[in-house]
């Protein structure tokens, strides 16, 4: 008899197409959005946690210089990062030297960096704005001398978006009052290409393109086509192209569709979070997930970034967030267990209102997270990526690799289970009654540690142990009121008992 125990990550099992797209290493998966983290803190996190736990990459907050905005209480909001002053690499997260230190250390730890780039617009209505790098701008006169941009570089006359079914408005008018750049102008394209190529030279693996649906696809293609290959000095293979995923919020009926942007790169599939919220709150039957993916009218799996929440949607009521922790963990477990899309995990700070920025001191400097003995964070940071149920499922995903879904089971309502070939098995119970049934796991005979309820402790499990018999079946028991809605087991390194 053997015990199959999670060791954080399993090497050599993940060999699927997403690695060629995302530039992640073969034994890794999953992007974590370290929202508003400082560059030095991200470097530390790559080395001490993300690399060892098998995460594939980090999405960072916008690295370009932004306007300094003070709210009535003196604090600074999160959205100031999306009000661009120049393309200097100076923000509250750090300067250019610290940025390069981060990309080098993270790449050395096997973790890729994807920069959130804001290239659709400049600032909102700040008459005499001052940036995080000392740049100045004048909104009324369209003056951004540190780029430089002037009136002739924007869509004129200025207009507001009041009809999202009008593509011309969406792509040529001001988003929320933010000065809208005209990407058909060579000077604008040149400055943006220079900015993105500078980031490539500094070791990034790709980009999350903010507000991509607010830019014309042909303009974006003209920009992307001029991007350099990734910098081999940071460990990338020659001729490696940057991974591009574009923020295109699409609800299925808008006139601007994912299909217009998919030829250029991946797109963000917001509907994943919207659709899974009612499922894991028990409002829609879990059994319907048997057809999860394109049959739910979602965009093709090979072209999407999939996520439960992001820094925008978590401030609304349409998706699950850390504030609904039990259902949220289950939804993320399903996201990571299912092969649909390239997954991204949100890592947040605690907030009480829409505008609230990251944990900061009286001078507006971002506070570093404190790492507690149990691997959780303090100092105002949530750090969902450090929750056991989440990072263990990252390892699950790394282990199952490209294995297909098999051995689907459901009780006709809110209990389901499935395997990923003969590498992993997961079960969910989102109803009050107990799940207690013998199920086909697809796994080899042996004793397995449930990676949701615990971890390996020597040769034993700190959580529940599940015995798989010679025929691949196991007795699966999960109470309706259990701390977690799911259990998961997978193959890995073995130790005798």
UniProtKB/TrEMBL annotation:
Instruction: State any single GO MF term.
Output: cation binding
Among SMART domains, the record links this protein to:
Aamy, Aamy_C
Question: Domain Alpha-amylase C-terminal, which positions?
Answer: 406-494
The UniProt record lists the keyword Ribonucleoprotein = no
Q: Which Pfam families match?
A: Alpha-amylase, Alpha-amylase_C
Q: Which domain of life is it from?
A: Eukaryota
Q: Ranges for the Glycosyl hydrolase family 13 catalytic domain?
A: 29-397
Q: Which UniProt keywords apply?
A: Signal
Q: Where is the signal peptide?
A: 1-16
The processes (GO biological process) annotated in the record are: carbohydrate metabolic process
Q: Which family does it belong to?
A: Belongs to the glycosyl hydrolase 13 family.
Family matches, as PANTHER family = ALPHA-AMYLASE
- List the protein's name: Alpha-amylase
